[in-house]
Design brief:
RNA_pol_sigma_r3/r4-like, mainly alpha, 8 helices, transcription, 71% helix
């Protein structure tokens, strides 16, 4: 969790970058890139780097519209999730794969199962899992971020967790 000095420094960077300060933009990029990369790779998987690049471009194109620098991380997260979903859809990974092909317990390939199971979920299910279980957002906030109803987030989360659990324990 960032402390007040980090928040203050980030606010200064945002304001300077909004004025066109290229050094501030570069420093802000250094701060945001790892976070955006983690968010995008959790949703877009193998296309995570492409999604992160698209998200960062969108962030810096729209940075002048950010009114409250304290809202930077939430604003960036929304852009990153949107771009990751868009990239995953463009890549054709919208239809979940067959989960019956997972390795059995004791198989040497078991160490890659988590990534494999995530790869088999739809981008929407990966996004909900990431927002709720990694980012710790509540259903209402995740719904607003994804542009869907709270009930949709709850049902996607239930299906994603259930599918993950079944695939993991089979």
């Amino acid at each position: 969790m960032p402390d007040d000095r980090t928040d203050d420094r980030t606010a200064v960077l945002v304001r300077a970058a909004q004025r066109g300060d290229t050094l501030a933009m570069a420093e802000l990029l250094d701060v945001l890139a790892p976070y955006v990369g983690r968010v995008c790779s959790a949703v877009a998987l193998d296309q995570g780097a492409d999604a992160a690049q698209e998200a960062l471009v969108a962030v810096f194109k729209s940075l002048r519209t950010l009114k409250n620098p304290a809202a930077l991380h939430g604003w960036v997260r929304a852009i990153a999730v949107r771009e990751a979903l868009r990239t995953a859809h463009r890549a054709g990974r919208t239809v979940p794969a067959d989960l019956s092909a997972l390795p059995a317990r004791g198989d040497p390939q078991l160490s890659t199962d988590i990534r494999d199971v995530l790869d088999r979920l739809s981008p929407e299910h990966r996004a909900v899992l990431m927002l709720r279980d990694v980012e710790g957002l509540d259903e209402r906030t995740a719904a607003a971020l994804l542009g869907v109803r709270t009930g949709t987030v709850k049902s996607r989360l239930h299906r994603a967790r259930d599918t993950f659990r079944k695939a993991w324990t089979s």
